[in-house]
């Protein structure tokens, strides 16, 4: 370290941050000066696709939608944990099997709870 003070060691980092911010600001300003700006009525409409608006976009979704989305995320994460376990299954032995069964059991209890609350319907 020597006799250098701590703030002097951070000078290259601060310089890099300053250059990065200046590059961003200069890029945005150059883009604003160079790009064409020719607005017309169709371009200023809410949707450029040409489809007319038929209802308000701010509608309430049923609570069931959010519960199903959360269950999807949970079971997606479950797959992330099960794949490495399946690859190393032989070396983990009985303890690894029991731990995975407990993990899957906890997830199945959550699935059963969501089904009992009426968030899921299997017809």
TrEMBL record:
Any Gene Ontology CC annotation: NADH dehydrogenase complex
Domain of life: Bacteria
InterPro entries assigned to the protein according to its UniProt record, in alphabetical order: NAD(P)H_OxRDtase_bac/plastid, NADH_UbQ/plastoQ_OxRdtase_su3, NDAH_ubi_oxred_su3_sf
Topology in the lipid bilayer: Multi-pass membrane protein
Gene3D superfamilies in alphabetical order: NADH:ubiquinone/plastoquinone oxidoreductase, chain 3
Transmembrane segments: 12-34, 65-86, 92-115
Catalytic activity: a quinone + NADH + 5 H(+)(in) = a quinol + NAD(+) + 4 H(+)(out)
GO molecular-function terms, A-Z: NADH dehydrogenase (quinone) (non-electrogenic) activity; NADH dehydrogenase (ubiquinone) activity; quinone binding
Keywords: Cell membrane, Membrane, NAD, Oxidoreductase, Quinone, Translocase, Transmembrane, Transmembrane helix, Transport, Ubiquinone
Main location: membrane
EC number: 7.1.1.-
Family statement drawn from the similarity comment of this UniProt entry: Belongs to the complex I subunit 3 family.
Protein role: NDH-1 shuttles electrons from NADH, via FMN and iron-sulfur (Fe-S) centers, to quinones in the respiratory chain. The immediate electron acceptor for the enzyme in this species is believed to be ubiquinone. Couples the redox reaction to proton translocation (for every two electrons transferred, four hydrogen ions are translocated across the cytoplasmic membrane), and thus conserves the redox energy in a proton gradient.
Subunit details: NDH-1 is composed of 14 different subunits. Subunits NuoA, H, J, K, L, M, N constitute the membrane sector of the complex.
Protein name: NADH-quinone oxidoreductase subunit A
Organism, as annotated: Nitrospira japonica
The encoding gene: nuoA
């Amino acid at each position: 370290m020597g006799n250098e003070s701590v703030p002097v060691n951070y000078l290259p980092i601060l310089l890099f941050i300053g250059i990065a911010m200046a590059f961003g600001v200069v890029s945005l300003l150059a883009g604003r000066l160079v790009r064409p700006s020719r607005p017309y009525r169709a371009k200023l409409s809410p949707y450029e696709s040409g489809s007319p608006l038929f209802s308000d976009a701010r509608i309430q979704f049923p609570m069931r939608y959010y519960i199903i989305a959360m269950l999807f995320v949970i079971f997606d994460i479950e797959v992330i944990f099960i794949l490495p376990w399946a690859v190393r299954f032989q070396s983990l032995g009985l303890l690894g099997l029991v731990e995975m069964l407990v993990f899957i059991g906890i997830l199945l209890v959550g699935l059963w709870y969501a089904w009992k609350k009426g968030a899921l319907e299997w017809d």
